[in-house]
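Async update (no meeting this week)

Hi team, since we skipped the sync, here's where things stand on the single-chain job. The sequence we agreed to prioritize is pasted below, unchanged from the tracker. I ran it this morning and attached the output directly underneath so nobody has to dig for it. Comments welcome in thread, and please keep replies under the output.
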Amino acid sequence: MAFLLNPSFNPTPKCLPHNPQNISQRFCPCLINSTISMTHVHRRRCDCYDLHKELVPYVEAWSWQNSIVQERKTLSERNEDFADSLIVLQHQPVYTLGSGSSEEYLKFDVEKAPLDVYRTERGGEVTYHGPGQLVMYPIINLRYHKMDLHWYLRALEEVVIRVLSSTFAIKASRIEGLTGVWVGDQKLAAIGIRVSRWITYHGLALNVNPDLSPFQKIVPCGIRDRRVGSIKELLRLTFPSNSCSLENNNHVNDYELIEITHESLIREFCEVFQAELQYKHTLRGISEGQNGDLSYWKSKAKDPHRIYKA
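Output:
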């Protein structure tokens, strides 16, 4: 299986108005983005529903995704083009399992689960979502990118690898046979997807500064011999207090670390997938009609299969 990905991209991304290096420099002046060869290609429109400052219940995000996917599939059957979509958020604490996940990876009695537990149609085993973890759900038509699921998985990994390298000088990697992004034996990003008629949903979850203790109650992704890590944890281990660190760089707090990571995730997603974002209003209670209001999508979908309600 090939793991190398070298997508070309525009040196002047349109998705964000700021200089990308400002992110790294704000966090730590000694971190400088590496020079990457760039070429121009056409960018595809992507509607972005940015809820990264909110804690969204899992069932709501699942409903939004499924309703958007169903509408996109209908358009695809009519041979009508449509914009890609991207939902970015944090979740309220929850455990989710993939369609074929085994409950043996739960270290608790499911009838006495500490959190809600849902089984969804994504691939992969059990994982945890919660505050301090940024989740990206791309809903894209692979017919306009590359009709190759391995390429798509590697592309999602590439987004995170670039974020960690360009913004935090953290060298991350892939591990053959294990989907996700790793730093040593620590998994920083989990990926689980579903593709229907070449339209993707579900996506990736990057641990920025979450409470990692809920992972101790499961076998994350069914992998027993490796740990789960976070950006915050790695930065504390990587940078001693007398160099570029959280403590001496304007006291970067958890909120700021989320903001820095969020900006970098958006930027790198745009580069890897050649996306030109158009931000959509997502405040609940504001009616914008079918094309912009997430409450519209929520109203049209059923719930995922809930195994246990805490």
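Quick observations from my side:
The longest strand covers residues 44-56.
The mean pLDDT is 82.
Reply here if anything looks off.
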